[in-house]
Design brief:
Order of helices and strands: EHHHHEHEHEHHEHEHHHEHEHEHEHHH
Oligomer: single chain
Strand content: 5-15%
Strand order of the largest sheet: 1-10-9-7-8
Shape: globular
Number of helices: 18
Number of strands: 10
Structural class: alpha/beta
Bound molecules: 5-phosphoarabinonic acid
Radius of gyration: 23 Å
Largest sheet: 5 strands, mixed
């Protein structure tokens, strides 16, 4: 059966198989902590058994809500940031026609999903609101804490706009809130306004929440098969239970930690398919927020090849040897495009005539891999059979499980993010938020 696969043979010039295997006991202990809740951050392990615990009724509720949105809206704005944004964005981008936003919106089973609240760009919000001025739109507002500034500003603006465009009662039918069961301003607002709501479980952190309604509702509203996504995750959940050589998450976790201990401090997630750009963004948050603490952790970066071979290729080939690559390679692309023959052959490309574009891309990948390995860059290769919901579900869970194991090998709490608060405190102080008077005085004395 087609499935994702991890190949680490191209790291063996930098670390040995024995060095990787020597981390197996630590990885097995990490896996055990994830399954038994005995490690740091054990309050946040709801994602571990989440795929197998999702009920039919829950999926049906998400699908029915998505249908009600698609029946009444052509556009949905998913409002959220970080873990309340990147998972849905990554999956939708991986599955969508890349020019769908430019095509007429004529499929009643799908909404175009736009995103807001993931930045504080005034022009972004102005242009989004301007675009939506004559559109049938709805809002999925997502915030676990219910108090995050970026989505709160975007939601305030979009809610006001929607209420002006369709009236308060109709707006309330087109807004869905995904938030904590009890706490936070968004929960209170949703209760007062009578919005349909979904709960983000207490024990699932933002960056592990893509398989909760946080990711599933926008993905379903975009017209994709959330059951297949969840089925794929369930398969990977089953495949990553045992601490064995067959566990791909364990192999990935041990390999990247062996490389880290050998001085490879930067991991570059590489794709050869532009549809995976945002998968790299999701992965960076997952690993960066989980591991970057106590002055430790691999720095997660990402590039899109072959595009970035023309910008970052030089550094990767020849720069400081502190990097390794994890290549996400898609085995079968969705469409066929054959390079035509040309009588004049002025561009000298006739040697490629009759070949698929993807054959060229695969040779770019192979040629780059050989060049980078020759240049001293270890390469982990993760193959995914195709960009389909089931394999993306596998991939999501694969990386989540490996992240938990990896964090425990590193001996950090993979499930908190105390460092994210520092900028917020300064921003609130500078904006003179009530309650921050002392911080305001202190920060103003420094500028
Ligand atoms: O992973 C995390 O915890 C963060 O990235 C959060 O998801 C992000 O800060 C958004 O938080 P919230 O969903 O509470 O608005």
């Amino acid at each position: 059966m087609a499935t994702i696969n991890v190949d680490v043979k191209n790291v063996l010039g930098t670390v040995t198989a024995e060095q990787i295997q020597s981390l197996n006991p630590e990885a097995a202990a990490g896996l055990d902590k994830l399954h038994n809740g005995t490690g740091l951050g054990s309050d946040f392990l709801g994602w571990v058994n989440l795929p197998s615990e999702i009920t039919e009724a829950h999926l049906a509720d998400i699908e029915a809500t998505a249908k009600s949105l698609t029946d009444n809206c052509d556009y949905i704005v998913a409002v959220g940031i970080g873990g309340s944004y990147l998972g849905a964005k990554a999956v939708i981008e991986a599955l969508a026609d890349q020019f769908s936003q430019l095509r007429p919106q004529d499929d009643p089973r799908r909404c175009r999903v736009l995103f807001a609240g993931q930045n504080i760009g005034e022009d972004y919000l102005y242009e989004l609101q301007d675009f939506l001025a004559d559109k049938r739109f709805g809002i999925i507002v997502i915030s676990k804490s219910g108090t995050t500034t970026e989505p709160a500003i975007a939601f305030r603006l979009l809610k006001e706009q929607l209420e002006k465009q369709v009236g308060k009662a109709e707006a309330a039918k087109r807004i869905v809130a995904i938030t904590d069961a009890k706490k936070g301003a968004l929960r209170q607002l949703a209760t007062e306004e009578g919005y349909k709501t979904f709960i983000i479980p207490d024990n699932v952190g933002g960056r592990f929440s893509v398989l909760t309604p946080v990711g599933l509702l926008p993905i379903a509203a975009a017209g994709y098969d959330i059951r297949a996504l969840v089925d794929g995750a369930r398969r990977m959940e089953a495949r990553t239970v045992e601490a064995s050589d067959e566990n791909p998450s364990l192999l990935y976790a041990t390999t990247r930690n062996a490389l880290y201990r050998a001085g490879r401090k930067i991991e570059i997630m590489v794709n050869y398919n532009p549809k995976l750009h945002f998968f790299g963004e999701w992965w960076k948050q997952l690993y960066g927020e989980s591991e970057g603490k106590d002055h430790k952790g691999i720095f997660p970066a990402s590039v899109d090849f072959s595009t970035d071979l023309h910008s970052m290729g030089q550094w990767i080939q020849d720069g400081e040897r502190t990097i390794f690559e994890t290549v996400l390679s898609v085995e079968e692309v969705a469409h066929r495009t054959i390079i035509p023959s040309d009588e004049a052959n002025l561009d000298g490309l006739n040697y490629l005539a009759g070949k698929r574009v993807d054959q060229v891309n695969k040779m770019a990948e192979l040629g780059t891999r050989i060049a980078h390995v020759d240049g001293g860059v270890p390469v982990i290769r993760v193959t995914i059979p195709a960009l389909k919901e089931e394999y993306l579900g596998e991939l999501i869970y694969f990386f989540e499980k490996a992240c938990g194991i990896s964090g425990y090998i590193l001996d950090v709490n993979p499930f908190n993010q105390p460092g994210v608060e520092a900028y917020k405190r300064n921003m609130f102080a500078l904006l003179e938020k009530p309650g921050y008077e002392a911080e305001t005085a202190a920060i103003k004395s420094r500028i």
